[in-house]
Amino acid sequence: MTNLRTRSTAVALGGLLLASGVVGTVAAQADAAPAPASAFLAPRIAATGDLSAPAKKEIAMQLVCSAENSSLDWRAQYGYIEDINDDRGYTGGIIGFTSGTGDMLQLVQNYANTKPDNNVLKPFLPALRKVNGTPSHDGLGQKFVDAWHQAAKDQVFLTEQDKLRDSMYFNPSVNQGKSDGLSNLGQFMYYDAIVMHGPGDSADSFGGIRKAAMKNAKTPAQGGNEKTYLQAFAAARKKIMKQEDAHSDTSRVDDAQLKFLNEGNYDLHTPLKWKVYGDAYEIK
């Protein structure tokens, strides 16, 4: 894995509170007859993307995989696991679940709940609970790595990875993006940020980065310009990234997200060309 990811321990608590989704309206002139609410809402709704649409979600998965795994083949990452020396223990699976931040524990617990019998990862639950919040391998080691590889041959485990990725990262960030009136690009920028920084409200989490951006620019739902807001969001995120040596390379923002923004590709339409850590990628 090329990228070393920051993730708040608030991940273990699923700590992202979503906005209600209220969309801003334009005030009617004082002497004009009141227009129906739909007349005000239609332009804003039309401008908002839907990254959860299957074709767009596929693009989002490939874009993140290019930064997290130096590949576009995100489906090949279910069995991935290693310690990338980022003080978060083991990193594994399609979104980089980690043993030190709680989401790997949650994944294995969900897997054990769904498949309580003949589950090769279930015996490691006590060890995962003990190492949560630390980089320790105690009770895990090569036996755990081997069991992870074996579990990756089980469709039930793959499905649990998909479900947790969506419930903890993809759906919350996309829903927040929709509430903020963002395009597919904006929703993706939220998703990529929550993958690296984790949910929560601390300054170095997704919620904290969003709050910092909103101090400098209004979201489209607040009547702001999307490009101006996304530039502010990118700047706030890069400030946090540069606080850690592992994240000092901000090319996943500069040479992908901001490139698409400057091209005006708010819809993330193909072909897409970008670079991450100097490597070139293309989705045709």
* Order of adjacent strands in the largest pleated sheet: 1-2-3
Helix content, binned percent: 40-55%
The count of β-strands is 5
Largest sheet geometry: 3 strands, antiparallel
Mean of pLDDT = 87
Number of helices: 10
Q: Give the distance, in angstroms, between the N- and C-terminal Cα atoms.
A: 24 Å
> Rg, please?
20 Å
Order of helices and strands, N to C? HHEEEHHHHHHHHEE
Q: Which geometry do the CA atoms define?
A: globular
Return the structural class.
mainly alpha
> What are the low-pLDDT stretches, counting only 5+ consecutive residues below 50?
1-6, 8-46
User: β content, as a range?
Assistant: 5-15%
Write a compact overview of the structure shown.
Aids in the defense against invading fungal pathogens by degrading their cell wall chitosan. 47% of the residues lie in helices and 6% in strands.
Detailed description of the structure:
- It contains ten helices and five strands.
- The protein is mainly alpha-helical and 284 residues long.
- The longest helix has 25 residues.
- The two termini are 24 Å apart.
- 43% of the residues are buried.
- It catalyses: Endohydrolysis of beta-(1->4)-linkages between D-glucosamine residues in a partly acetylated chitosan.
- Its EC number is 3.2.1.132.
- InterPro entries: Glyco_hydro_46, Glyco_hydro_46_N, Lysozyme-like_dom_sf.
- Its main location: secreted.
